[in-house]
Design brief:
By secondary structure, this protein is mainly alpha-helical. The protein has one domain: ABC transporter involved in vitamin B12 uptake, BtuC. It contains 17 helices and 6 strands. The strands form 3 sheets. It has a two-stranded antiparallel ribbon.
């Protein structure tokens, strides 16, 4: 059995592709999606544990309704626009965490790595006069190198990821404090390149509407192309009615977001970059051989090894992705406050990043999740933080609410996995 064929035999992420077909007497799988309407499909996925992003989307709606009923400014254009910028830093870090969680592992060092990247950038630009572009590159590549080191100890030496990254959490945080020096805080030029990442807005209304239209059209074309390819290959595919429904929902959400953003300052550059990163990494996970290898390892390491996959290389590369995204997220967080300080990369940031990935739908057991999980999860967490701040409630309440939401997400994940086992899907 060749490696390529073995990868194609792996179960697709999130139960997609294999669901909906029924085995015939000849052992083939007959397409069943075409005869189902979207409500039937949703009901079947509910019973089989394949809920996808439905629970977190409903949870986000509930959170918004509650806080809007308590404070009418919560859904104001200003607050929602600020929310789209506030989610970017933590969201970038959460995207990297998704890659690690897909293997069923954990990276506890992302908070410290993000703080170290911000501190390195500040020291290079402010104390040593290095151009901001070069300092940005050095900071990001530093995160990549850190991920490679941690991945090496995990994959090659055999040290558990929990221990390796826990050591990284302490060590990289200590290095951050060391390079910041006795002052502990370095202010960044609020007119510089880094500051512009979160302060620049596309004021032309065509920018937000154009992005909404482009995203909706792109989603429909890609989905329709996938359906045609799957039907041509004789495998189950989504019905056109479901694709049209999904496209319609996306169009409504995108258009509403564009209207709200244009009522304040326009489309934030930070949000645009975040969405581009999400789309790019989603394509890497779902449409490349490398992505299939990650899902294969998350499903069964031993089975992936027997098919000839380079398990160690994939493991190291995943931690490199996590380190890179942690550094990028740290730079966006520093851009938001135009400074790097001893509180950068604090423990709360680590918890928020991991919680965002899990709340968004990435399984702690590995093998299931998407980059969009980070977006949904961080939206929930930051919405709670924003609502609590508007109401003037103590931060302790935010921690309790977030903890409760995280517990609910893990319970749903566990019940979903149990249902999938009952249906023979895992």
């Amino acid at each position: 059995m060749s490696r390529t064929w073995a990868l194609r035999k792996q179960k697709p992420p999130g139960g997609q592709g294999a669901a909906g077909g029924t085995a015939t007497a000849a052992g083939r799988r007959a397409p069943a999606f075409g005869a189902q309407n979207p409500l039937d499909l949703l009901r079947r996925r509910f019973h089989s544990g394949e809920l996808g992003s439905v629970p977190v989307a409903l949870g986000l709606i509930v959170v918004w309704i509650i806080f809007e009923s308590l404070n009418e400014n919560f859904l104001s254009p200003r607050n929602l626009s600020n929310l789209t910028v506030d989610i970017v830093g933590t969201g970038m870090i959460a995207v990297g965490v998704v890659f690690v969680l897909l293997l069923g592992e954990i990276d506890l060092s992302v908070g410290s790595v993000s703080g170290l990247a911000a501190a390195a950038f500040a020291v290079l630009t402010v104390n040593h006069g290095v151009p901001e572009g070069l300092a940005l590159l050095v900071a990001v590549l530093g995160g990549t190198a850190i991920g490679a080191v941690q991945g090496f100890f995990f994959a090659k030496v055999g040290v558990p990821a929990f221990v390796v990254t826990l050591a990284g959490l302490l060590g990289w945080n200590g290095l951050m404090l060391y390079i910041l020096g006795v002052n502990g805080t370095i202010n960044i030029d609020d007119k510089g390149l880094l500051a512009m990442l979160t302060s620049y807005y596309f004021n032309n209304v065509a920018a937000a509407y154009g992005l909404a239209a482009l995203g909706t059209a792109g989603y429909f074309l890609v989905s329709y192309r996938d359906v045609r390819r799957r039907r041509a290959a004789g495998v189950p595919a989504r019905p056109l009615s479901e694709i049209l429904l999904r496209t319609g929902v996306l169009a409504v959400i995108s258009l509403a977001a564009a209207v709200v953003l244009n009522q304040f300052l326009g489309l934030p550059l930070a949000l645009l970059i975040f969405l581009v990163v999400l789309v790019g990494l989603d394509c890497v996970l779902r449409r490349t051989r490398y992505g299939r290898m990650i899902f294969a390892l998350g499903g069964s390491v031993e089975a992936a090894r027997r098919t000839g996959l380079n398990v160690d290389l994939v493991r190291i590369s995943v931690f490199m992705v996590s380190g890179t995204m942690a550094a990028i997220g740290g730079l966006f967080l520093a851009s938001r406050v135009t400074s790097a300080s001893q509180t950068s990369g604090a423990g709360l940031l680590l918890m928020d990043a991991i919680a965002a990935a899990v709340i968004g739908g990435t399984s702690l057991f590995g093998g299931r999740g998407r980059t969009w999980s980070a977006l949904l999860g961080v939206l929930v967490i930051q919405s709670i933080a924003s609502g609590v701040a508007l109401m003037g409630i103590r931060t302790a309440v935010q921690f309790m609410i977030t903890g409760g939401v995280l517990l609910i997400a893990v319970v749903i994940d566990s019940l979903s996995r149990r249902a999938q086992k009952a249906h023979g899907r895992v």
